[in-house]
Amino acid sequence: MVIPTYQERDNVESIVSRVLAAAPAAHVLVVDDGSPDGTGELADAMAEADERVHVLHRTEKAGLGAAYIAGFDWGLRGDYRVFVEMDADGSHLPEQLPRLLHGLERADLVLGSRYVPGGAVVNWAKQREWLSRGGNLYTRVALGLHLRDATGGYRAFRREVLEKIDYAAVVSEGYCFQVDLARRSGAAGFTVIEVPITFVEREHGESKMSGAIVREALWRITQWGGAHRVEQLRSAVRARRA
Question: Residue 240's pLDDT is what?
Answer without folding.
Answer: 75
